[in-house]
Amino acid sequence: xxxxxxxxxxxxxxxxxxxxxxxxxxxxxxxxxxxxxxxxxxxxxxxxxxxxxxxxxxxxxxxxxxxxxxxxxxxxxxxxxxxxxxxxxxxxxxxxxxxxxxxxxxxxxxxxxxxxxxxxxxxxxxxxxxxxxxxxxxxxxxxxxxxxxxxxxxxxxxxxxxxxxxxxxxxxxxxxxxxxxxxxxxxxxxxxxxxxxxxxxxxxxxxxxxxxxxxxxxxxxxxxxxxxxxxxxxxxxxxxxxxxxxxxxxxxxxxxxxxxxxxxxxxxxxxxxxxxxxxxxxxxxxxxxxxxxxxxxxxxxxxxxxxxxxxxxxxxxxxxxxxxxxxxxxxxxxxxxxxxxxxxxxxxxxxxxxxxxxxxxxxxxxxxxxxxxxxxxxxxxxxxxxxxxxxxxxxxxxxxxxxxxxxxxxxxxxxxxxxxxxxxxxxxxxxxxxxxxxxxxxxxxxxxxxxxxxxxxxxxxx
Length: 462
Description:
The protein has 21 helices and 16 strands. By secondary structure, it is α/β, with parallel strands linked by helices. The chain has 2 domains: 216 residues, D-Maltodextrin-Binding Protein, domain 2 (3-Layer(aba) Sandwich); 206 residues, D-Maltodextrin-Binding Protein, domain 2. Helix 19 runs antiparallel to helix 21. It is globular, with a radius of gyration of 22 Å.
């Protein structure tokens, strides 16, 4: 998910999402069940280990990115993999997210690509088209780990390539995760004010409800025009646009659609949360303290989160939960984006079977997926695990069904998911600050930017 340019342009509405803590989840009853499942998994691990014990030692390289917490989680997962496959040693490198793309490109161009690496969005499209990544379909056809009916198709389809486009054909990667972008709120702040919190049911809470609550939850104690507490921050423009019936692009026709009324009305609504209503931090306030920090500090009522934020949020001294993104009062619809990152295997790997075994363990193995969700990294890729023990966990969020609703019902692939070149959407995020700071209206901005976006899309994607 390439959000860096987006968030840097949305300074007053966005922040870099960090995770800082790690904790295990599961109720006492569920923990007992997990213990039985883990025992079964360990027996399976022993069986596999017995069958590979006589194989020659192999070392493979795996490169990903993330914060220290993600690195710690994957070190644990890799240790479990090496226990299951004792002849394989994994050399794991975690690169800072801002440096990852350039480092990966450099390694690939120099013929030194890792055996397994993170890939997503436009990079996956380009790599699949160039033959950089291995077609893993033949390997999947030979493994008992893969039951396509038990893996979210919304994740799998992001790594299909048919020779012309992404979304159909053989699999050239496996999902690391499926990332529902949820609406999170500080439950204690709502309770203290006696305000009904956002609904977990899509469509029940609208932009009007959001604005009403945000006004009550924005607190300027000394009247200096600089609230100590805000109602909302980092409101998702994608959510607003899609809920309002708009879209950034029609990928079937290649037509950029940002200049349509449904789009610019939604964009103006997001901007006006700051410019008109003052319930969301402006540029100065964001520079002083970003929205993520405000939420952690209990100074922000409503924000945005992905499943990967759970470890940090589990450590918070207040109660929180997630809800459906507010619906547009015009359409009554709710929407948000559904991200994903994948595991790809280099087409030049000298050990493709072992590389596939690692990717499959991290993506599809029940034991690995259980560790992943218990450590707070993601919603399981396995549907039965998601709808079973993940949903039954007593760890926050209480309304974790929302994560699954986003996956199944109203989540959409993030905007650049099916572009092989993202300059067209990068340009939008780079210049959107003109709307956020009130320099121009959303209608004027989108009318000016649409032809430029269209030119870039046509030049590099068709």
